[in-house]
Amino acid sequence: MFMSTSAKVFDAAYYHRYYTNPKTRAASRTEQRRLADFISSYLKYLQLPVGEILDLGCGLGILLHRLQQRFPRARCVGVELSPYLVEHYGWQAGSVVDYEDESFDLVTCTDVLGYLSSEEASLAIKNLAKLCHGALYLSVITTEDLDICDPEHSDMDQQVRPYAWYQKQLAPYFESIGGGLLLRRPVKTPIWRMERA
Predict the structure, then answer these.
(1) How does the average pLDDT of the chain come out, rounded?
(2) Which pLDDT belongs to residue 6?
(3) How many Cβ atoms from other residues are within 10 Å of residue 175's Cβ?
(4) According to the CATH classification, is domain 30-195 in 3.40.50.150?
């Protein structure tokens, strides 16, 4: 299994700081549920079938559990690099860089790529393209986000790259449709130009 070149330790203290402590967490459970509701509503609006969901870097699984509620018949897979989370939550051990499985209708990857070097992040995007044949939800802090990012509630010990870098890496495989959602190319679903990012 891939081992990141980052020295970051994703242990109980990390998840307490950024996930469970109300004073320091990056996002609340309510925010994660709203995000899942947005993703599922947009995909239902586009009439895209979702029978398999993969969450790479699923953390505590809040987003994945809500997506499971929104798509109750879907097979859901949570993958984590953190040995702590694998042991405590039963996720599959793996990395966005080299995790292997069948292709999924919906793949989510939230705040993971920033912990990778540019070479690793590029490999991760290629792997996301292998794992996704439908929609990808991708979130990562970019250089352009630094003026709105709250450093008290965000782990800034990351590789912060320009949006254009991600756009260039994603363009051969995905087309953005707004809100962090991308569709795997070639896009067969009819989408108005104004609805595309």
Answers:
(1) 88
(2) 47
(3) 16
(4) yes
| Triad 79, 84, 88: Cα angle to 5° | 80
Token digits of residue 197: 């990012």
Among 171, 175, 172, smallest CA distance to 190 is for 175
99, 104, 102: which is closest to 53 by C-alpha? 104
The sign of the torsion formed by the CA atoms of 88, 89, 90, 95 equals negative
Residue 2 is encoded by which pair of tokens?
A: 């891939």
Q: What is the pLDDT of residues 49-103, one digit of tens each?
A: 999 999 999 999 999 999 999 999 999 999 999 999 999 999 999 999 999 999 9
Closest by Cα among 71, 59, 36 to 111: 59
pTM of the entire structure?
0.89
Which amino acid makes up residue 131? L
